[in-house]
Amino acid sequence: MKLNRRTIFGTLTAGALAMSMAACGGGGSDDEGGSGDLASGELNASGASFPDAFYATAIEAYAEVNPDLMVTYNATGSGTGKSEFGEGLNDFAGTDSLVGDDDGVEAGSFQYIPTVAAPITVSYNLPGVDGLQIDQETLAGIFQGDITAWNDPAIAAANPEATLPDTAITLAVRSDGSGTTTNFSKFLDEATEAWTLGSGDTIEWPGNAVAGEKNTGVAQVIQDTEGAIGYVDLADANEVGLVTAAVENADGAFVAPSLEGATAALDGAVVEDDLSYNPLNAAGAEAYPITAPTYLLIRTEYEDADIAAGVKEFVEYLLTDGQELAAEADFAALPAGLQEQALEALNSTIAD
Amino acid sequence: MTATATPEAPAEVDLGGEARARRTDRGFRALVTLAGLTVLIVLGLILVTTSVRAWPAFSEEGPFGFMFGTRWAPNDDVFGTFPMLYGTLVTSVIAMIIAVPVSIGIALFITEVAHRRARKYIVTVIDLLATVPSVVFGLVGVLVVVPAITPAYQWFADLVAPVPGLNAVFDETNTGRNYITASLVLAIMAIPIITSIAREVFATVPETDKQAAYALGATRWEMVKGAILPHSFGGLVGASMLGLGRAMGETIAVALVIGGSVSMSANLFEPGNTMAAIIAQQWGESSGLHTDALIAIGVELFAITVIINFLARVVVRRAEIKMKGAHS
Question: Which residues numbered 71-90 in A keep a CB inside 8 Å of some CB on B?
Fold first, then answer.
């Protein structure tokens, strides 16, 4: 039933989209003479929910810069965003994970544009204990169920000063498939020897895991469960005031999650030719090790020139003035070098 | 067809044009047949389209492996749904154990005990409960019930700790997101449905039967037991089945409170998952075979619901035959 409703809904949105595209196509050609440089019409985007707070802030601010270009971003999740991109249902998509073989997006039909990054915090609920330090192997042990109590010697070793209770550990994880899970598990997979659960947007968590929906749901689980530990983005952890742990990075330093730590991780990451990059466990003493990137997918070919102009204008805004809004939404801006590369890629993908 | 049938309808009143009336009748017949067929067509289309999309998942695992496999690992392309099937059955059955007696109690109270003036208000309130959107139940469950009830669960687990058997079913916990919370929320959601049908069913018990019971010297309870309940058995099974259907298919409220963990545990205080809930949770980020597997869960749920309804029908028919036999 649920599925059927979704299909109908999909059809309706597709129809509405077609109509709106037709409408703005017509509108565009009407005022081509006098509208100056700014694009107009409607842009439809969907995808990752992780950067939604940043995109929402940027879209709101952008409406004041150019009120004629209406941008909507639907936080449907990276998977849906990518498959809608493949079906031509959106004008650009947001994704936390790279495009895979079975995502329904044709190779060569898109360009990655990195927009912002954000630290994924390891937050916990243990009354009376804060400023916990967790090394990488211990983190892997906790999240695959090898370490089940807070007073485990492995945790105590890195925290000689803390008084750890014998409370059982409850893992707070994501119930929905998520780019946050992908990045968190990828970090454990790449950084540690002990991790055996692999990486992906859903993980077979051990039996002491409780799942919440989206970042807010996980934050909720941590908040109302004594002894819980989970991975949440910085914005949601701050929102409910969760206590976060300092995580050991590649240089062996314990770094608490912060935007500065995330930007430092971006600086230390190697950027590939297609602009994908991996800031997880990046080098640098200041770098926060669990920093997740997020991208937009833009098309290499747009059928409608007005849409192309709109996408270019909006994405350019995201990469320039929009970057200053990132911190407001608890996201880390791109370092200058990567920002430059992203703008270059945008300009060469969508010609004027 | 609609256009020709409606304006001519009044013609039937003046008995003059018999031919015209017959034509109207035929039009009406076609119209309602079409309406009736719509249900079948829609149901058929749902079954066909979902089965087609689910096919890759079924053929990957085999229908048996898909249903009884205990490992659900989308990143390894392994899809066994038994933990979800278990969760669905456990939560629905517990919900029914709570909801059916309560609902029958409410319905008996309304029809037999409550003052006539109070009756009206009680019915309105119960019906209001039925109109509350399920996501509201889910949110109340996760924001209010879960934090508040966790200590109660812990207290109960400590209480039954020395009792063998019970201590396995109600074992230690530090989370309120579990099978029991989901069952409680489902029970509250099913109560208005079961109550309102049970009420209708009780209202159909002939007044003469009840009076006859009283005339034989029955107390009120004996009258309920001897006249109302036997007469209503089939209807009550039907009401419970509707409630069960709601409980098994309920998605968002369960997704919020059950804890979303793909594991099976005899401990009802442990988090689990249900078939409907996992579809809602994982749909957004799924792709490829994972999506197909989620659709396949939908097909599986559909099939199970049909089977349970069919069994319920058999139960009702048996009971009715037995009752009629006893009467004659």
Answer: 76-80, 82-83
